[in-house]
Amino acid sequence: MAQATVEALLAQERTIEAPEEFRRQALLRDPQIYDEAERDFEAFWARLAQEFVTWFRPWEKVLQWMPPKDGSSPPWLQWFLGGKLNVCYNCVDRHVQTWRRTKAAIVWEGEPGDERVLTYQDLHREVQKFANVLKSLGVERGDRVTLYLPMIPELPIAMLACARIGAVHSVVFGGFSAEALRDRINDSQSKVLITADGGWRRGNIVPLKRNADEALKETPSVQHVVVVHRGVMDATHVPMAEGRDHWWHRLMEHVPLECPCEEMDSEDPLYILYT
Predict the structure, then answer these.
(1) Cα distance between residue 163 and residue 139, in whole Å
(2) From its phi and psi, is residue 128 left (phi > 0), alpha (psi between -120 and 50) or beta?
(3) Coil, strand, or helix at residue 223?
(4) Which of 262, 260, 258 is nearest to 125 (CA)?
(5) Which end of the chain is least crowded, N or C, by CB within 10 Å?
(6) Structural domain boundaries of the chain?
(7) How far apart are CA 158 and CA 128, in angstroms?
(8) 3-class SS of residue 204
(9) Cα(100)–Cα(171) distance, integer angstroms
(10) Residue 2 clears pLDDT 70, i.e. is over it
(11) Up-side HSE of residue 123: CA atoms within 13 Å toward CB?
């Protein structure tokens, strides 16, 4: 393809409006927000952070900015210095305190057609319990936890539980190989791996536990593996390493129901995502 053709295909001057229904559901609908942001972007983001985020402690400075020096270093910045918050609290807890507590937080339908609906109350309970599971396995603030799961409710539950206690989660796509999983675990130095016996993808079975076991042959940082019984195979046929592997549902049976949110700094890492 000629360079001129490439440049012609890249040129686009049309304005494509969003559908009316989509615009009606937008959180911010006033086009004047662009003018507001251009006039004083720090004040703009401070207003949005105050309006849409619940803070345990307000920030002292909106933005700390250090431009690059002579092209030898990247720009460096920090947002909302001194502010304390928790992502799990903002996603779950604050809604439990309102009329939304009985509303659906997760509506899930998977293969081969099973369904689950979790209200905010349900999600709050499950997240707190699994946060206590992680604590019982020795996970502390700043520790890494790798998630190698199908698209099931346990995935966001685990993500939110990590955020609740200040652990850093790393989601690895369930279609990735054992080698890709191994490399991501080793790079992040994860203490815990959360996986499932398997999953379905377009009608085919994905052997997640088998892949995980292969990866774990060369991942010395992992101390515990939590396995969700998705039902792809009989539980008695799933190889479980004694002392290392644990069934999700068994761990959830005897943990406390309450787990407070850790107060996190605005610049604390939330997750690691490998691209």
Answers:
(1) 12
(2) alpha
(3) coil
(4) 258
(5) C
(6) 15-85, 87-272
(7) 10
(8) strand
(9) 28
(10) no
(11) 31
Q: Kindly state the greatest CA–CA separation across the chain.
A: 66
Which of left, alpha, beta for 231 (phi over 0: left; psi -120 to 50: alpha)?
left
- 111: CB partners within 8 A, 6+ apart: 199, 200, 201, 202, 203
* CATH assignment of 87-272, among 3.30.70.1660, 3.40.50.300, 3.20.20.300, 3.40.50.12780: 3.40.50.12780
For 107, list phi and psi in degrees, rounded to 5: -115, 115
Find tokens 């892949």 and name the residue: 211
* CA-only gyration radius of the chain, Å: 22
Residue spans of alpha helices (H) in 53-100: 87-88, 94-96
Residues 265 and 79: their CA atoms lie apart, in Å, by 10
- Predicted model pTM: 0.90
203: pLDDT strictly greater than 90: no
The CA distances from residue 239 to 172, 173, 205, 225, in Å, are: 21, 22, 17, 12
Instruction: Identify the three-state secondary structure at position 199.
Output: strand
136-189 per-position pLDDT tens digit: 999 999 999 999 999 999 999 999 999 999 999 999 999 999 999 999 999 999
pLDDT at 55 over 70: yes
Residue position matching structure tokens 């460096």: 76
How does the average pLDDT of the chain come out, rounded?
Answer: 94
The Cα 149–Cα 139 span in angstroms is 19
